Amino acid sequence: MISMIMVLNQKGDIMISRQYRDDVGRAAADSFRLQVVAAKETGTEAPVKRIENCSFLYTRHLNMYFVALTRSNVNPALVFEYLFQLIRILKAYLGEDFDENAMRNNMTLIYELMDETMDFGYPQNCAVDVLRLYINLGNVRPQDEPEPSQLTSQITGAIDWRREGIRHKKNEVYIDVLESVNLLLSSNGNVLRNEVTGQVQMNTKLTGMPECKFGLNDKLVIDKEKEDRKPGVEIDDCTFHRCVRLGKFDADRTITFIPPDGEFELMRYRVTDNINLPFRIIPAVQEEQGMTKVSINLKVIANFSDQLYATHVVLKVPVPKNTAKAKIKHSFGRAKYEPEQQAIVWRVKRFAGKAECHINAEVDLMPTVRPKPWSRPPINVEFQVPMFTASGVHVRFLRVYDKSGYHTNRWVRYITKAGNYQIRI
Amino acid sequence: MATAYPPNQGGVPPEGPAAMPDSYFTESRKGEVNELKTLLRNFSTERDPKRKRDIIKKVIAYMTLGIDVSRLFSEMMLAIETRDLVIKKMVYLYLVNYARSHPELATMCTNTLQKDCGNEDPMVRGLALRALCGLQLPGMVEYISEPLRRSLTDGHAYVRKTGVMGMLKLYRLNREAFQESSFVDILYDMLRDPDASVVSNCIIVLNEVMADSPNGGMAINRAIMLHLLNRIHEFSEFSVVQILDLVPKYIPANNDEAYQIMNLLDPVLGRYSPGAVIATIRAFWSMAEAVGGPDEEAMKRQIVSRCKAPLVTLISSCSSELGYSLLKHAESLIDAVPGVFDDEYRQFFLKYNEPTHIKYLKISILPKLANPENAPDIVAELAECVNDMNIKISRYSVRSLMQIACRDTGGPGCAESIARRLVEMLDLNVSHICSEAATSLASVIRKHPGLKSVIAPPLSRSLKYVEESSGKGSIVYLLGECSEVTMAPYALEKLIDTYDKIDDATIKIALLSSTMKLFCQRPAEVQAMLGRLLAKATDDVSSQDLHDRALLYYRMLESGVDLPVLASVVDTKTALGQGVNFAEEDDFELRAELMKEFNTLSIVFGRESKNFIAEEFQVKFAKQPKEHPLEPGSEGAAPSAIPGGGLDVLGKTSAPAPAPAVAAAAGSFDLLGMGDPGGAAPAPAAPSGGPPFNAAVSMTGDEYQNTWGAINDSQSVVSMVPLKKIPGSTQEVETALARHGIKTMASGELPTEFKFFLYAQDSPTGLLMLIQGNLDKQSGEALLVLTVKVNGGDGGASDQQKVDTLTAVMSSAL
């Protein structure tokens, strides 16, 4: 069990501390400040730290530390999950990027939330949707005030993610399929690692307690239905929001659920086979003798239909630390050497499908006293391609059944973006 | 209130953090606190709830900053009488914070709190109860007990769940008072509560309250376990872990039950909740251990391969902190069941922008995944990492390469290719890489003496630019080992000539023993330099070890020992035999211990909990119930120990054949309240062999209805049968049951559920059992709920036993 949760700022001062058990004191914050915050070890050392028989598990949001203290042998994944859940709840109440000031101004709200989500060191109900029913300070306002007696049955009901009696004038469902492509290419073009992690985000505005049925072009389902259309996608593994009936999914791979109201993440999946890489990049980097010059040649090919286009394309081509200047030739977009990034950064707002681009850069290096080898970090690519899925996943149907039989508007969006899209040089 | 101002006890209470040593500053703060005090006392604020809210908010804000606002206690207590829920919550918070330092004042507000515990709004009831229990004042026990007891039967789950946690607080406050009242029994009863969060809180409380019992926590028996597992889908991601943590403690009645439990848990792996997934793995693991026997290893392998995909998905998509914890757990699974994760090795390649602690971990995992197929890729990846700008990462990568070579898991030729790469690194002219490569080569040579010819060429030149002492020492050691290098003595000679500049004893010792080794091989060339070295070393007093060794060698040479004898003394015998690993690799005992503490910090720290958890926080781990596992055969129609499809636990093909009917014979308490509390006499077991139900029985519809009506509803027994899937029609179920002597009177299909009216005759006693079965089609879980009435039964334990038999037969039939 957790003895204490505290939130510290960058300097290590306590902003919020809630003691659930009396086996640790505020003094513990000092040791954390000295050993973690002052030592600047976040990111380099493990996020679990042991100081004098007390374990500190911590994570960060902006520059605040969220720390859980415990003296017993806890389940670390669960503690982290709680911390993330707490941050998620605070985001829902205080806005996506709440900062120190927002925390200070909403001190009492935060204490309320911390008391409600954890009792005596054990996590309790952490569903934002339910919490906002009865804790309604801050930005979050309930759409309509439910009766208090009805309220508590919601707090702990069997379907605790949705309350009864929700009404919407228009019944709408927004489905976002977000994919991020992870790619690691070795310098000679071998694929070291390639996978797509996808999320299906939903925003439901539905009346009543509707039952939804959702279908992707999952290979296992398509094969079973024997429709001789496009072949399905082989999904390696998927996980679902709590509302999905796993029993049904196991039996016949149908995804049925009663959705929470508002935004939630329906499922996550992972695909590793037959991935359409949206960008092909062929690098040629040569360090000249004597380390005075580096020449970089890049060819970038957009590997998707010419009906589509990619946005926010950023290529970061690393150059050595001692770069003096870079002469860059390129066909479109804007490219320049950015010393603070130690890279040539090439930005294109709109990159049409099937387009090709060459970049040619001559990098002059400053002479150094002792030649230091260049570590040659990978080229990093960022992009977004709307209406394209690298895995080929698409939504086949979403059916909404409700007693009143209303009509539902459905909107589907696809976005593929770069996760870790790296090409070694 | 007689005194308007609480006596000022020297300003700072013992609990309050004396954050402001600066007296000037304290004064100014005091001024602010006084101002708040006047504001709170001001009559006009009474009428303006918004303003009052703001003032109280300020008080709370000061409190968190560590400023002592305890002087406002009486004012704050006055504010508790309000209808404003927000103010109430804030005052409760204040109260809980300062009650300990002002017990006499806190007692005054108990009345209000008690009154609030009876408020019509369940929210207020719950809040007041939580505040009341949170005061933690020893004198309060009598005030707490009553509202607590009332809360447990409250109509609202929110109050009940708060009440259950309140019991834990009461227990911490006063153990005697807790034990005097029969709270433990009530808690066990409440495990049947319809609300999942109440149940999970009950488990939490029981685990802590019973920590000193021989069970080291809540006592579990078969009835409790199966009851909880059947409901597992109702629990939220946090509370489900409470149940999952009970499973490793449970000894299944027999192997079939272990398989059944695993099947029930399998859906949890599909949830997006790292905590639950890891807890499930641990539960699976314990079930495999419970089954034991020759198949245990195979089963564990199967478990890990089942859990691999969910685990990898979580690792690749979650935040770095969770990823760290998950990777640690994955690592211990890889250690325990080598080979299963091998094909996912690409998941463990480094990403450029990961936090370094994740990178370290991945580098240490990669060598464990090497097999002949993927070794080239892994070696290439690690060789890339060697060039990383982060010195630690490049060092670790070199070490990992060495581990692959030393474990020799990479197939033929792998060790040699690694050795070649390491040799190339020696020439890289980057200090830390050279030195690390040299140290690694020294280890590789010990495992693969055959690779000397690969390593030998660059040694003498690299001696010049390896700067770190550990690396230099390794090179000197290697030069001694690779005596065939023609230049070896001359390389060492240079070092001997600059002996005075060496300030590290390890290099000196290595130099001494290497020179001796070379002397044994090529006495003529080395003699002169050895003499110089021995002269210097015997005079050297900086290291005792060096000094003594030098003297030993010197005296041996002086006494004219034969070369072969000398060589045998000098030979350090550091080579490892075939199939022998370095001691670091052979920590099986520690790993086995750690697997017992899977899903705790022990895995993250890599140490047993007794090393880092204070004794009072240790939790005993005891397997229970004691009578399990039951001897197969002793209970009549027990199935064979390991059925043919036994290993197919995780595929969902084999029907979970549950245990033979065994009365929940445990019974210090009647946990699920199903049996006779007065000492359930174990009823006669079903006769061995014959079918439990008489197939020849028949009934008419009227008889059925009359018999059903004649038996009091309170005597009926409810039980549940998990099905593989929702059946297509009632016919399917009926035919399956008829084969086992369970007859159908009527059945029907509604849009939402199936209904069955069944009956059967218990063959040993001839008693008729009437069964009503409901199967909810919408809940998504195929669970057949049975209501059973035994005609002529005593309503006690023997009925319960018959129903158990029935449930078992039915679930095996379906």
TrEMBL record, chain A:
SUPFAM superfamilies: Second domain of Mu2 adaptin subunit (ap50) of ap2 adaptor, SNARE-like. GO terms for cellular component: clathrin adaptor complex; clathrin-coated pit; plasma membrane. It holds the Pfam family Adap_comp_sub. It is found in: Cell membrane; Membrane, Coated pit. CDD domains: AP-2_Mu2_Cterm, AP2_Mu_N. Gene3D superfamilies: 3.30.450.60, Mu homology domain, subdomain B (2.60.40.1170). It is a peripheral membrane protein. Residues 170-424 form the MHD domain. GO terms for biological process: endocytosis; intracellular protein transport. It comes from the Eukaryota. Keywords: Cell membrane, Coated pit, Endocytosis, Membrane, Protein transport, Transport. PANTHER family: AP COMPLEX SUBUNIT MU. Belongs to the adaptor complexes medium subunit family. This is AP-2 complex subunit mu. It comes from Seminavis robusta.
TrEMBL record, chain B:
InterPro entries: AP_beta, ARM-like, ARM-type_fold, B-adaptin_app_sub_C, Clathrin/coatomer_adapt-like_N, TBP_dom_sf. GO terms for biological process: intracellular protein transport; vesicle-mediated transport. Belongs to the adaptor complexes large subunit family. It comes from the Eukaryota. SUPFAM superfamilies: ARM repeat. It comes from Seminavis robusta. The lineage of its organism: Eukaryota, Sar, Stramenopiles, Ochrophyta, Bacillariophyta. Pfam families: Adaptin_N, B2-adapt-app_C. It is found in: Endomembrane system. GO terms for cellular component: clathrin adaptor complex; endomembrane system. Residues 1-24, 624-645 are annotated as: Disordered. Residues 29-559 form the Clathrin/coatomer adaptor adaptin-like N-terminal domain. This is AP-1 complex subunit beta-1. Residues 697-789 form the Beta-adaptin appendage C-terminal subdomain domain. PANTHER family: ADAPTOR COMPLEX SUBUNIT BETA FAMILY MEMBER. The keyword Protein transport applies. Keywords: Membrane, Protein transport, Transport.
